[in-house]
Amino acid sequence: MAAALAAAVYAGIRVKRDLVDFEVYRTAGARVLARAPLYRPEDGHYQFKYLPAFALAVTPVALLDVEPARAVWFAFSAVLLVVFVRQSLRGLPDRRTSTTRLAWLVALLLGRFFLQELALGQTNLLLGVVLLSALLSAARGHRVAAGALVGAAIFVKPYAAIFVPWLAATWGAAALGASLAVVGVGLVVPASVYGWAGNLALLGAWFDTVTATTAPNLAFPENISLAAMWARWIGPGSAASWLALASGAGLGGLALTAWLGRRRAARADYLEFALLLLIIPLISPQGWDYVLLLGAPAVVLVLDRFGTLPRAWRGVAAAALFVMGFTIFDLWGRATYARLMSWSVVSVAAIALALVLVELRRLGRA
Predict the structure, then answer these.
(1) What is d(CA 11, CA 18) in angstroms, rounded to the nearest whole number?
(2) Whole-structure pTM over 0.90, yes or no?
(3) Are residues 20 and 157 in the same domain?
(4) Is residue 310 helix, strand or coil?
(5) Cα–Cα distance measured from residue 334 to residue 206, given in angstroms and rounded to the nearest whole number
(6) What are phi and psi of 97, to 5 degrees?
(7) Would the N or C end of the chain have less CB density within 10 A of its end CB?
(8) Do 190 and 315 sit in the same domain of this protein?
(9) How far apart are CA 195 and CA 183, in angstroms?
(10) 53 and 142 inside one domain
(11) Could you report the per-residue pLDDT of 288-342, keeping only the tens digit for each?
């Protein structure tokens, strides 16, 4: 049944979205094999925006013909989806709800993000699996391995660097050293293909590409970052940029508040990890709505502890989950959907869910 469903989804994807982001990775891999520049403005919206080491990692798919490569990538992503949800459930401490019920609810609330991820051929599921693998490794006492996995995650998506300060404060110097060592190695590995000067040029081109493509992406309705939210509310400009920075600092303050209250929980890492994963699309200017699939651990935790929340907070949690999961074009229609996205309701819902996590920590429920 799962294979039949996956085949049906794949057929639908090939008609509509056709794994367009996967083509970015495949093209980058082909350029590595040709020792060609990775970052090219003429690629437009589909410029490669990842660190050079990631391009080296995806060279195997560039060796395949396009149709087998797409099928292999989709199958790989589908397996990652199952693993990611299972990890979210396995890591949950003191679970109070059946795993089957939680899994179905996560599929219902985040299903649209999972489908978008598969349709685009993106790598957020890979990021989530690597980071949750770090969390589960640390829970087994393997903190050095966990730190190394956090370092590797930065090459999947650079915004995984948000975990480095938390890692240093929570898992200690050995984990931090392992993470920094992996990052260091990853930064110099492309020199084996491009040479030292070529690698430095690539890193400079990567930085230029990321900074140059940020502002145009804020105009897309599906961008749920704080920068896009403030730009919609008061218009683009320095005021919106400063407010986005202040809001990002506020989310950092929430994470710090949760961390300072960790003595209230026997296994505090899960909530803090879930909170950081949830706020990634908010603090990243490239924060597309489907990146909220990384909020699966947060959704699992809130659903499992829903009955322990005060009534008012249950209302906040229910509204946040509904808005995140069901602000869909097909459900509301073009005009209403456009209005909702112009109000940044999904961003507000994600912030509200982050507040619910902090309340759970305050109450000592997680």
Answers:
(1) 9
(2) yes
(3) yes
(4) coil
(5) 36
(6) -125, 150
(7) N
(8) no
(9) 18
(10) yes
(11) 999 999 999 999 999 999 999 999 999 999 999 999 999 998 888 889 999 999 9
